[in-house]
Amino acid sequence: MNLIASYQEAHAAGSAECGGKAAALGFLQFNGFTVPEGLCLTCRAYRDYIGGTGLGERIMMELNRKPMDKMRWEEVWDAALRIRNMFLRTPLPQELARSLTPLIEEHFGNRPVAVRSSAPGEDSGSGSFAGLHASFVNISGTEAILEHVRLVWASLWSDAALMYRKELKLDVFSASMAVIIQELVHGSVSGVAFSIDPAGGDNAVIEAVYGLNQGLVDGTVQPDRWKVSRKRPLRLEHYPVPRGSMLVPVPGGVRCVPLPPEAAARPPLDDAQVGAVFDQCLSLEKLAGTPQDMEWTINDAGAVVLLQARPITTTGSDPDDKRVWYRSLSRTFENLKKLRERIEKEIVPGMLQDASQMARLALRELNDQVLAAEIEHRNEVYQKWIKVYWDDLIPFAHGVRLFGQYYNDIVHPENPYEFVDLLGSRDFQSLNRNQKLEELASIIRQDEKLMNSLQQGGEYELFQAFSGKLAQFIEEYGDLTSPLLRRASGLSAGMRKLLLEMASRPERKRHVTEEDVSRLTARFAMQVTPEQLPQAMEMLELARVSYRLRDDDNVYLHGVEAQLNAAMLEGQRRLRDPARELTAEQICALLCGREKPEAESAPEHSMAVFTEQKPQSGISVTARQLTGQPSSPGLATGRARVITCHEDLAGFCNGDILVCDAISPTMTFVVPLAGAIVERRGGMLIHGAIIAREYGIPCVTGVEDAVSEIKDGANLTVDGFLGIVRVD
Amino acid sequence: MPEDHNQLREIAALLASQKLCVLATADEGVPYTSIVAFAETADLHRLLFVTTRQTRKFRNISGNSNVALLIDNRTNTEEDLHNAAAVTAAGTVQEIDKDAQPECSSVFLDKHPYLQDFLAAPTTALVALDVRSYIWVDHFQHVVQYDLPA
Question: In this predicted structure, what is the pLDDT of residue B18?
Fold first, then answer.
């Protein structure tokens, strides 16, 4: 097969070499439909590229760090980001570039084009990848086209595509990709059409938006919708929507802009145009022999141009169509902006208000029945916020990911995580809390008498600078070393040890300074074009909020949890039950004089982060070298401190290596003491990784079985450059 | 073999899939490597190989019984970097009296029937490595050590 095929050659060659989309365009063209002029880069070009550059094996090494089924979604996303960066930074081999450049140059010159994926199997009836592989609109010039071809190739390895292929039990590793390059049709109105409603019924469905079709496909612009009877005379049912924006070409890409008022007041299609689109869709169905899903646009001459067509993959509502879920793994900028508003205006103030309202209640003054009702109420409030946390706050982390991809596309950095350094973290709640701890430690460090007194378990109340600040700290954050964050007055043994340990070493300063952040931001601004600058800065700002909330949301949620804990503690105190494991429900029942119910299993969205150790067998198994993700650079050696429950944190000494299943923000107070962090849960944007980078501590995440295979007290060497943990 | 150890099963499968391995010996601290045919006992506690007594490897193990064997499934392609697994078996060797312990010869010949004449020669020694530990490497850098009970 040649490197380049016409649509009709693609149709003749079939999906295996040219992908379903290119083959379908050949079929449409052959049958007299109007399609945008263009050509297909065959799968051979992809193979020549990954074979000729060694990229194929680099991808395999990246994806074989550990078995795919043991990778969390975040780890798959990280791997996909690294792979995407490999594509961005690896130019075409000279011979391939020499073959392709003149052909593309001759065909398109400087005309704007769309660069679209056309992977084998992508649009088959059984497993459609619609929306999972990338397409780019409004790209001009051979160099830019070839760069975007590489990005389309890279999308074969996006997180969603990888996980979807795994779900369909397709061979993840043998995937290949053809690419369509086609002239851009500046459609004033575009849309999709289904010759039969995929959600059921016997009507056809047409959806239309002003501007480019991408706005509809990626969910940025809500479409007007028509149901059309399949028999004549056509009956139309119109479902209008509030029309506010459209996607238009801007230099180097597309942009969502407000719709002019006269357009907003009028549906994008009149009845005759709906009929024209429907006619095309129905004649296509007749030719193809199966119901069709097509994307179309109306060109300047008023003709319907078909951008692509494929068999409808689901007729009738299919609850198992997981594509929707995989597509939801990425969010558009517009979607995230709306989410940000909701989080900042409703969610965070709501959590803070609930927590402070509960804190005002004097629990000791309540009788047992009222206390039981209060515990129940607090438990409901807490469960409500946990749900919000999963539904809204976790998806908001996509703001960081969206910016990361944008940054890498522009800068092509050697380190695909360079963008994280631009995000800064000066306002992180947990880091501010740690700073206050450092200040307390600093008072001890400078006052020998106070230190001696604390070391001997003696008084500290006379040291007013210290005791005043300590009281403030406990009031605000509680006793960090107690799992229930007790707000008891005075210094617990755990806090005493923690502060002495921190005082025993020089103050740990934050690694990333505000000057660093400003310098990197300025450098980034220099690398975007003046047209791109406003959007670039808007995305950076959104990413910063997303990054901060990634950490802070846990602190806010914990504030609510602490109120529940306080009420439960009061309940337990009255029951004089030494058992620490009573649930809220059990405490309520006992307070009201009922029998203790059986504890239910952990709720679906449990916040528990500790896991049990695996039982050991006769053979001694010792991890010698474990691999994970390099999440914060640096090299450190020290004693492993394996954390399996909150109490383990109390024994944490300066220089110890924190080994745990997953760091929660309630554990991060020991991080300034840690020599390095090793975590089972994987990802570059998890709390452990964020806070490790902040302090300049080496960190390796995604180390499978870290807690069970690393023994407490073992001597560890953590290589945060390569993601390797050596056990001696 | 304890059934609850998946990884030992992986080691057993790797050993069963390979006929040759690399033997590392030392002569007063100077390392020396050779390729030998090996066979493993069912409990994986012992690996057997044969050599004539005139060889440098036999001289080395006579002076220093601490040796290591490397068994791997490389295919000499770039895919090895993500696909290959290797295990090092470390322990001490001793020569087996072929007449007194015919079961050891059987284990070896079951895997290498074509070496029957070579094994039977009076100049050939049947050597057993009593494995103290297996060190397993896969996924490029992932290393786990299995210490067997003495």
Answer: 97
Task: Tell me the residue length of chain B.
Answer: 150
Beta-bridged to residue A181, according to DSSP, are A39, A115
Report how many domains make up chain A.
5
Q: Give the mutation candidate from A66, A69, A71, A624 for the B interface (greatest B CB count, under 10 A).
A: A624
Q: A656 with A631, same domain?
A: yes
Q: What is the DSSP string of A93-161?
A: PHHHHHHHHHHHHHHHTT--EEEEEE-TTTT-SS---TTTS-EEEEE-SHHHHHHHHHHHHHGGGSHHH
| Residues 47-76 in A contacting B (C-alpha not used; CB under 8 Å) | 54, 56-57, 60-61, 63-66
Together in a domain, A387 and A465: no
A86 and A206 assigned to the same domain:
no
Q: What is the CA radius of gyration of chain B?
A: 15
* Chain B residues inside the 8 Å CB shell of A54: 78
A16 shares its domain with A146: yes
Domain interval for residue A46: 4-183
Query: How does the average pLDDT of chain A come out, rounded?
Result: 87
Is residue A17 in some structural domain? yes
Chain B, residues 50-109, CB within 8 A of chain A, namely 78-79, 81-83
Can you say how many angstroms the Cα of residue A11 is from the centroid of all Cα atoms in its chain?
37
ipTM of the prediction: 0.81
A126 and A108 inside one domain = yes
DSSP assignment of A243-285, as one string?
Answer: --EEEEEETTEEEEEEPPHHHHTS-SS-HHHHHHHHHHHHHHH
Mean pLDDT of A508-528: 86
Look over chain B and give the mean of its residue pLDDT values, rounded to a whole number.
93
Q: Is residue A301 part of a domain?
A: yes
Tell me the CATH architecture of domain B6-145: Roll (2.30)
pLDDT given at position B5: 55
Asked if pLDDT for residue A48 goes beyond 90, the answer is yes
CB contact under 8 A, B147 and A709: no
pLDDT in tens, A404-431: 999 998 889 998 988 988 987 667 888 8
Contact between A204 and A240 under an 8 Å Cβ cutoff? The reply is no
Nearest CA in chain B to A725: B142
Tokens linked to A372: 């039981």
Q: Indicate whether A508 belongs to any domain.
A: no
Residue of A nearest to B1 (CA): A619
Give mean pLDDT, residues A120-140: 72
Interchain contact, B143 vs A623, CB within 8 Å: yes
Quick: pLDDT tens for B112-150. Answer: 999 999 999 999 999 999 999 999 999 888 898 999 987
- Separation of CA A75 from chain center: 10
Q: Are A173 and A265 found together in one domain?
A: no
CA-based nearest residue to A65, from A627, A700, A707 = A627
Residue ranges per structural domain of chain B: 6-145
Residue A609 lies in a domain: no
pLDDT tens figures, A668-722: 899 999 999 999 998 888 888 888 988 999 999 999 889 988 989 999 999 999 8
Shared domain for A307 and A348, answered yes or no, is: no
**∠ Cα A246 A139 A55 (to 5°):** 120
Question: Residue A667 maps to which CATH number?
Answer: 3.50.30.10
Confirm or reject contact between A623 and chain B (CB < 8 A): yes
Among A162, A183, A204, where does a domain finish?
Answer: A183
pLDDT band for position A489 (cuts 50, 70, 90): low
- How far is B84 from B73, CA to CA, in rounded Å? 6
- Residues of chain B with confidence (pLDDT) below 50: 1-4
Name, in order, each residue with C-beta under 8 angstroms of A642's C-beta and a sequence gap of 6 or more: A648, A659, A660, A707, A710, A711, A712
Clarify whether residues A21 and A112 are in a common domain: yes
Lowest mean pLDDT among A140-149, A372-381, A554-563, B44-53: A554-563
pLDDT digits (tens, 9 = 90+) for A52-76: 998 998 898 888 888 888 888 889 9
